[in-house]
Amino acid sequence: LPAPQYPWLEGLNPPQREAVLTTEGPVLVLAGAGTGKTAALTARLAHIIAERLAWPSEILAVTFTNKAAREMKERMGRMIGDAVEGMPWLGTFHSIGAKMLRRHAELLGLKSNFTIIDTDDQLRLLKQLIEAANLDEKRWPARSLAGLIDKWKNKGLTPTDLDAGESALYADGKGQAMYTVYQARLRELNACDFGDLLLHNLTLLKNHRDVLEEYQEKFKYILVDEYQDTNAVQYLWLRLLAQKRKNIACVGDDDQSIYSWRGAEVANILRFEKDFPGAKIVRLEQNYRSTPHILAAASGLIAANSGRLGKTLWTDLDSGEKVRILGVWDGPEEARRIGDEIEELQYKKVSLNDIAILVRAQFQTREFEDRFIQIGLNYKIIGGFRFYERAEIRDAIAYLRVINQPADDLAFERIVNTPKRGIGDKAVEKIHRVARAERAPLSVAAARIIGTDELTGKARKSLSDLVIDIARWRDSATTLPPSALTELVLEDSGYTAMLQAERSVEASGRLDNLKELVRAMEEYESLGDFLEHVSLVMDNDANAQDEAVTIMTIHAAKGLEFNHVFCAGWEDGVFPSQRAMDEGGLASVEEERRLAYVAITRAREKCTITHAANRRIYGQWTSSIPSRFIDELPAEHVENEQTMTGGASLWRANWSERADPFAHLAAANATRAGARGPGWQRAATSGGFNPVPSRVQEASKPAVGLGAQGRTDLAI
Ligand code: ATP
Ligand code: MG
């Protein structure tokens, strides 16, 4: 390979350079975490432009998030200066899909100014259509249909592509019909949902040869980051676009495939070699991110998965510290300990920006947020809302505010028709009128209006029920502790039932958040105290300029790196999630294990994994056992620390006789660990680039989220 005559090649190792300089023909970079895949892809983009192999507008570059796209743009700017004319088509699948679709909207029966509807709009629309079809929405919730339609779109299936089996998944075979009317309605509205952004493009390229040829000609180079998480429709779209010139470079890591629940298919990696014969496979083996102990711990863990492509990883960084396993007594102690340690790091002049806390599910952020606000530690939540800003938490708190303070009109307005109980805008308007006339709060006006004939039918009955409920809850508030009161309100108001009926991944995440709210309230004696706390928390917006600890889900942390990483809540049932354990399939636990691998490999210098022996749920202490993933970490690369009596290993020992459907896996892992040989010396974690057993395909099947109710789950 040529010496780095190009500045953007400086600092890249030979295989990385190969990935940059092999501009012609298909290239697949398959490599573990932190090996510089994204770095190489960025240099490749810079190289193509700087060497004038193509105009920027002739390059298509796909990243997984908008943030990653911005970063790639910036880094490229630093490599080749900003003198570049025009911009590449650089963004997420969705953003690029939307851009292309606007140019050809009319070919799909849309206008170029079509709107992109969000999930809320989508649900409202589906509800209308379900009603119009005379289906019982309670029995066949709009959310389930929305989930199915997303799944079909991720697979690249239009309504006419559905077979009877797929159609049978909704309302006794009405799936296809409902999908058809939904698509028709979207067209009438000149609108698309997210799934359409790619599906319409695929239809466009399939049905219009001239358009296909135009783009095949136009995009001289195609680059894709995080390739392991592409789903079928994305893959088919890429394949069509690349079919002529075949200059497509994809980088990915099968061990970091964590979106199968959204339809991602690791099998796309295997298809790549088939669809693009002669593809150049580049393997990067040097990890530049993490110290050897961190890398070895992560590699040892992921070795327990079956059907991996297999990779070698090494680093020449100083050995650094072992991965620390910290067992604490309970959730509050976990938050306290991590908070203390972060303050210690701060004292040692570590920037808060270099510290991250990674959680499995959104609800886990609450304990940290409360603690950090208490001690005045700046934090930010990436890829989600701060706990008390989430819609379901705001709803629950609005109920409590109305109970606590009859004059709280904003809160009353928020809950009067949430969940939907037939008190529409007109009825609310009437309540407002009475309130204005009598200079009374809305809740008082509501009580007044039900005694008149201003309202009729359902609205009157529902409002009357609500007024009576609120009065009753106010009574209960004098006797019940705040947490019990909240449970009662969520139950009686129909709020919990509403979420349960949805049977979706998001809804179960919301139910978990509500449970977490109830848990949080157990620390407060009165409703007033708690609400006071909430208003202080809501007021505590960290200044965006200030340094801040990042709290986020592992899903949101993909591709990122931090000097110090705290992985919190490694307990069976939290991580791996209860849902994954219930589903019981190997595939779901293996996906959780890949998540664990992603979490550990975000750390550069120090990785701390915490687990609590007790979690408090509904006022009851429940003992939890450390995550099976902790056991799977190679002992020579971890150090254990307990702050509780008994110790986590004891807990584990007590539980070792439980029926473990994965026992054989653990055993296999132990054998492999033994066979791995002495120590960690530029060690291979598994064999070379093996042909892949068919199990990979199984492992990559999407686990569609219509499962267990109220279980721990992710909400990214
Ligand atoms: P992930 O799988 O997590 O997405 P990745 O393979 O994309 O990781 P990068 O994020 O590109 O890895 O790189 C990891 C770190 O290593 C970054 O800090 C990057 O700047 C650095 N790095 C990449 N290549 C080199 C190199 N040749 N020499 C020194 N540092 C490098
Ligand atoms: Mg990357």
TrEMBL record:
Catalyzed chemical reaction(s): ATP + H2O = ADP + phosphate + H(+); Couples ATP hydrolysis with the unwinding of duplex DNA by translocating in the 3'-5' direction
GO BP terms: recombinational repair; response to radiation
Pfam families: UvrD-helicase (PF00580), UvrD_C (PF13361)
A GO molecular-function annotation: 3'-5' DNA helicase activity
Key word Kinase present: no
Residues in UvrD-like helicase C-terminal domain copies: 292-559
GO CC annotations on file: cytosol; DNA helicase complex
Function (record text): Has both ATPase and helicase activities. Unwinds DNA duplexes with 3' to 5' polarity with respect to the bound strand and initiates unwinding most effectively when a single-stranded region is present. Involved in the post-incision events of nucleotide excision repair and methyl-directed mismatch repair.
Entry's family note: Belongs to the helicase family. UvrD subfamily.
Designated name of the protein: DNA 3'-5' helicase
Naturally occurring in which organism (per UniProt): Sphingorhabdus pulchriflava
